[in-house]
Amino acid sequence: MDTLGRRFEEVLIVNASKSSKVQVVPSSEYIFSVYQAGRRYIVCLERKICTCGRFQHDEIPCEHAITVLKHNNVTYMHPYCSDYYKPDALEKTYEVAMVPMPDKEDWTVLDYVLEKLSYHLGTEGWLDDQGIEERKTRMRR
Ligand SMILES: [Zn+2]
Fold first, then answer.
1. Which helix (H) or strand (E) holds 117?
2. 31 CA distance to ligand 1 centroid (A)?
3. Which residue from 7, 38, 53, 67 has the least number of CB within 10 angstroms?
4. Is 94 inside a domain boundary?
5. Collapsing DSSP states into helix, strand and coil, what is residue 32?
6. Domain range for residue 12?
7. What residues does the ion ligand 1 have nearby, CB within 5 Å?
8. Could you tell me the distance, in angstroms and rounded to a whole number, from the CA of residue 87 to the centre of ligand 1?
C-alpha cells in the first residue's frame, strides 16, 4: 500500500474535518452535487475536479471531494491524489535538487565545444557557401 507524505495526510485530515454538515446528491456515477452552507459544488470523481477548483489545482481531494468519497464509502483516497504527493515522487524531486553544481573550473568548456562543433559543421559543408550549394545540388538530384 502506498502512503502519502505526512504533510499531505494532514491536508486530507483537515479537508475531511471540513466535510461534515454537507449534503451529497449524486447526478451520475461519477458526478455529485455537494451542498454546503447554501452553496453548491459539483465534484467529478472520474476527472478529479470540483467547481471549487481546489481538487484539480491541488491534485488532492478537497473537502467536497472527500464528502463525496465518504458518501460512497471510499476510505482509500490515495488514487485521488497526485503521484507527486507520494513519498517516492518527493524523494525523486529531492534527488534532482541534490545534484551538485559542477565546479566553476569545469564551466569553461565552451571554446572546446565550439571548436568541435565548427569542425563537424565544417566537414559536413554546412558553414561555407560552397558546402550549402553542394547540398542543394544533391537534394535536387
Ligand atoms: Zn471542492
1. helix 110-124
2. 12
3. 38
4. no
5. strand
6. 6-87
7. 41, 50, 52, 62, 64
8. 24
